[in-house]
Design a protein that fits this description.
Spore Coat Polysaccharide Biosynthesis Protein SpsA, Chain A, six-stranded mixed beta sheet, alpha/beta, about 20% strand, Rossmann fold, about 425 residues, 3 domains, 15 strands, nine-stranded mixed beta sheet, 15 helices
């Protein structure tokens, strides 16, 4: 049997969706343990209604918000199933989720816990995330990122017998995985089996979770690899390389490469995980870092995509060349005026620059941005310019090709808009 543990707090708007998704599972042997942390909306009315209509629902009313970790621990103590499944009050589990997870765990006795891929939903946006499936790669990634989606996990009861959630932890799940990754094997099913709804009202809690995760990563990189990280920036530890993260230190990406090379060397001595798994894990992290840092996926960064093949000095030369290039500019054309263009000019010293905006979309032409008229590419290219910066990430190569072929533009003057990070 599965014990599903579901903490609630003022979840009246979403709890029906979550509960119905559990009740409609194709695997039928489960109990639902709901721990409510003192809801003041109609959550308890809804929960009591479900409890009256259906057997197998255990409702624990705490009367006050004591935190998710506390609620999970209370639920674990009440659980009678051989398997423990997690679920949040605002998410949706696909009907076959439990059936597929329990089948996997029964066929793979060495695995203590498994998660799944998820689909994120925020307002009208949605996208899917895939996590590595095999236990060794998950283990290798764990000190650098959380490769398990907490609301999707199902674990053998034995995993929790000596491993309760740390109620002082901000990210109670990540702390638990890291604490036990030498003793327990984790896995993920390569299939989306849960919809994760993102709220726009949790920025402060996200910030707390982020800084706590940084602390955890520093602690466990030290513990598992004997690598001291105090000299590495938080952005390096979090693998965040957007323009605002790297504006004040464009060499952060070099820190990251240096850290990976040290970790790899130390792993050979300490044997935290296999060489192959660590190489694969760091490849995944490095390619994501390169993609974010250079803010595009065009072919000019292809030779940087493997961290093992990237030399620190060569990377520094590329960064210095980009910095020199943008510092020497006075006249810039920005091609492609998307919705997020503003963030590239936040905190950037461009008052002494002549900036012209153009877009191939006729509906944007003749409108304004930063009090400047948006022109057609043909109009903009008649002006004097030192650089053309391409905004849209996914269409960099396509736009570059059209500029070269249609307008006879030299490839040397075409850059991604990320180059603005090198200009303070």
């Amino acid at each position: 049997m599965i014990s599903v543990i579901l903490p609630t707090y003022n979840s009246g708007k979403t709890i029906k969706r979550a509960l119905d998704s559990i009740i409609n599972q194709t695997y039928r042997k489960f109990e639902i343990i709901i721990v409510d942390g003192g809801s003041t909306d109609n959550t308890l009315d809804i929960l009591n209604s479900y409890k009256r209509e259906r057997q197998g629902i255990i409702l624990v009313e705490q009367g006050e918000p004591l935190g998710i970790a506390n609620g999970l621990n209370v639920g674990l103590k009440k659980a009678s199933g051989n398997y423990i499944a997690r679920m949040d009050a605002d998410d949706y589990s696909y009907p076959e989720r439990f059936e597929k997870q329990i089948e996997f765990l029964e066929e793979n006795s060495e695995i203590a816990l498994c998660g799944t891929n998820i689909r994120y939903i925020r307002d009208t946006e949605e996208w899917c995330s895939s996590f590595p499936g095999d236990s060794e790669t998950i283990k290798a990634l764990m000190p650098f990122m959380d490769p398990l989606a907490h609301p999707t996990i199902m674990a053998k009861r034995s995993f929790f017998q000596d491993n309760m959630y740390d109620e002082s932890a901000v990210t109670e799940d990540y702390e638990l995985w890291l604490r036990n990754c030498l003793k327990a094997k984790y896995a993920n099913l390569d299939e989306v089996l849960l919809d994760y709804y993102i709220s726009n009202n949790n920025s402060s809690s996200e910030k707390k979770a982020k800084f706590y995760a940084i602390t955890l990563r520093r602690k466990y990189i030290k513990k598992y690899f004997e690598v001291e990280t105090s000299n590495y920036s938080d952005f390096c530890i979090m693998n965040e390389f957007g323009i605002n993260e790297t504006r004040n230190n464009p060499y952060t990406i070099i820190e990251t490469l240096d850290l990976y090379k040290k970790v790899y060397a130390q792993n050979k001595k300490r044997g935290y995980c296999t060489d192959e798994a660590l190489t694969q894990a760091l490849d995944l992290l490095w390619e994501a870092a390169i993609w974010m840092y250079f803010y595009d996926n065009h072919s000019s960064i292809d030779n940087l995509r493997k961290w093992k093949n990237t030399n620190i000095e060569d990377l520094k030369v590329i960064i210095d060349e980009k910095k020199k290039k943008i510092d020497a500019c006075k006249n810039i054309i920005v091609y492609g005026v998307g919705n997020n263009i503003n963030r590239f000019f936040e905190n950037t010293n461009y008052k002494d620059l002549n900036i012209y905006f153009c877009d191939s979309n006729p509906q944007k032409q003749s409108t304004t941005i930063f009090s400047t008229k948006i022109e057609s590419p043909k109009e903009a290219l008649q002006k004097k310019y030192d650089l053309i910066l391409i905004g849209p990430i996914l269409y960099f190569d396509e736009i570059k090709k059209s500029l070269v072929e249609l307008y006879n533009v030299s490839e040397e003057v075409i850059e991604g808009i990320d180059i603005l990070k090198y200009r303070k």
